[in-house]
Structure to design on (361 residues):
């Protein structure tokens, strides 16, 4: 399923969750993750809506508590911070995605975090609203270029999010491919990034029961 | 002045895009927004190679022109436009082609339906609340029925 990894349909947004879903459908998406949504809708206009929870930079125990208290079926995002925090976040059970990569200082996301993310099957979200915003564009393009180099080497899951807080911030797949080309991401990589959420939410097990005999 | 033979003419490509904004911008205003974002993304040198221009605009659709091979860059530039005439906006690219005629065939005009819900601007299933009565500006018909 082609997924927009993060839209912010919260109370401060002027766009309803249904309108986000409708716009996503017209942009060619079949699933969106609504971060801290104001409404509880599971599907609209043929687009399935997953709930997401964003956990900010918290200290040790508060972070583990926040992850534990998250209800089942919710996609857990963690806002990246210092290198040591990122290593803890990646290895914590229940964390699905790392976000806020563009705000990191240079070297905040290194080869060790990349290797851990690949081992733990934790995804890294590329927020395209940072490219659209002229103030954060340069930093975002440079960070995403670094992340892409790590991804090509360590093969951790990469996801693409519009990061939109209004429906005007959502972009269609052609535009996403064109924007990703700015930091050297190929069309094939974009398509696999848009389709990689299933691999994170239901990873392949080493042993899988195919048929059960009674 | 003699006309250039077809083999020496610059090859061009055209991009049809939809302008999503509450205001009704003129072709010149659309061009200004597009040119600003082209320069911001690729600089003056990139813009000079790309030759961006808006060649047609009607209602919520417009057609932009560029040099062949720069379509992707033009779509990226259109995608980063966030304002037209100071109002929030989005340029959503619809199709790319070698002729203006084939793009005009892809234009679908959605009839505005103001009568059904006063205070709302309806186009298909999408609704824009002009009065912002309920705090949400962008809704769907189902959101209004729910109220």
């Amino acid at each position: 399923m082609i997924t927009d990894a993060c839209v912010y349909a919260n109370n401060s947004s002027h766009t309803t969750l249904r309108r986000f879903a409708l716009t996503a459908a017209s942009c060619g998406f079949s699933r969106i993750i609504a971060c801290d949504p104001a409404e509880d809708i599971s599907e609209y206009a043929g687009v399935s809506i997953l709930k997401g929870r964003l956990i900010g930079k918290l200290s040790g125990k508060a972070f583990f508590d926040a992850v534990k208290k998250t209800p089942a079926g919710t996609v857990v995002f963690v806002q990246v911070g210092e290198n040591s925090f990122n290593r803890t976040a990646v290895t914590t059970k229940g964390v699905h995605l790392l976000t806020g990569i563009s705000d990191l200082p240079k070297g905040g996301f290194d080869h060790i975090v990349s290797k851990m993310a690949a081992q733990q099957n934790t995804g890294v979200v590329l927020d395209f609203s940072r490219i659209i915003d002229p103030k954060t564009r340069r930093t975002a393009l440079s960070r995403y270029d670094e992340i892409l180099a790590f991804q090509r080497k360590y093969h951790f899951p990469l996801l693409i999010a519009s990061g939109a807080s209004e429906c005007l911030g959502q972009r269609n797949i052609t535009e996403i491919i064109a924007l990703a080309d700015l930091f050297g991401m190929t069309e094939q990589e974009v398509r696999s990034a848009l389709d990689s959420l299933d691999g994170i939410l239901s990873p392949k097990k080493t042993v899988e029961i195919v048929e059960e005999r009674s | 002045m003699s006309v250039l033979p077809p083999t020496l003419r610059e090859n061009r490509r055209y991009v049809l895009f939809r302008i999503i904004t509450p205001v009704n911008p003129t072709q010149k205003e659309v061009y200004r927004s597009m040119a600003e974002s082209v320069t911001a993304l690729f600089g003056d040198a990139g813009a000079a190679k790309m030759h961006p221009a808006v060649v047609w605009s009607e209602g919520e659709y417009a057609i932009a022109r560029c040099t062949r091979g720069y379509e992707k860059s033009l779509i990226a530039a259109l995608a980063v436009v966030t304002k037209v005439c100071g109002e929030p906006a989005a340029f959503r690219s619809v199709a790319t082609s070698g002729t203006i005629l084939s793009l005009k065939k892809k234009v679908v005009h959605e009839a505005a339906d103001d009568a059904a819900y006063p205070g709302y601007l309806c186009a298909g299933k999408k609704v824009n609340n002009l009065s912002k009565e309920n705090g949400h500006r962008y809704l769907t018909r189902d959101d209004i029925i729910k109220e």
